[in-house]
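Hi R.,

Here's the chain you asked about this morning:
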Amino acid sequence: MIRKLAFLLTPLVLGALPAYSQAVEVNGIAAKVNGSVITKNEVAFMLSPLYAQLVTQFPRRGVEFEKQFAEAREKILQELIDRRIILDEFKQIGANIRPHLIDEEVKRQIHELYNGNEALFREELKKSRMTMDGYREMTREKMVVQAMRAQQFSDAPPPLPNEIQNEYNEVKSTLRDVTKDKISFRKIFIPATDPENPAATPGTQLALAEDVAKQAKEGKSFEELAKAYSKDAFADVGGLQENLPRTDLSPEFSAILFDAPENHAIGPLLDPRGFTIVWITAKSPGPEPGLASVRPMIEERVRRKKTSAQYDRWIESCRKRAMIVRSEN
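And here is the predicted structure, written out as tokens:
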């Protein structure tokens, strides 16, 4: 069986990669909205999939890592702040979300963000010190906000047939069954330590991986580079792995690969045991849903686009009325 690329955030690389969840203050406050608390754990849990992807993508961290991480954290925190504001604005309506709809949404998020791996999802819950009940409540709030927004802008002009079709064509690939995705690629694995070279360190091995990746990007045969440098079971065949199910990869690794173009070198990426460089040869996406099965959701997306400017003005006025206090760190 092919080893799953778990990409755990271990401190082995350059001695300075602690897991994000380990740095989260227990019960810390990220912000308060009209006296209602948004915890750092809530922010951390929502941020964890992207954080794992960024650490994988930027083994040395660096300026771009810090920039993208800060932008992602700010976006998530603002999302949570706006959610609380909208809940306050509409609390008198008494909106109710049926429990089975919450269950379906939780399953969809596990499917989309964790490749359907519920065990990994629960592991992330544990790392962020969040209970399933707490996550269900977060999901319920998100769904209430969606319902409230739809009600607030129910006077939007109805979507036209061509608008519905165009929106469907634009987003249908993102709605596919990603657990049915398959991918073929060549891979070079550079271990963080090399038994054949006692002087090797994670730092020197990363430098080697960066040099190999540079050679691949400059046009040197990836197959030959794999045979010369890779230290895994696929080195003899030039690192080739074919029709690998997405579910055999970690969510962060698969997110990077399926977003990347074919026939380009990617990496080095952080691996629990070292560094990986990848050359994608082919991707086979999972099946897309038919328009009929997602039509209500597509129509709602069109309505949102038509009222986006109106919504932006409305939420900004709500922010000005709300009492928002952000934590300094």
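One quick note: The first helix runs from residue 40 to 57.

Cheers,
M.
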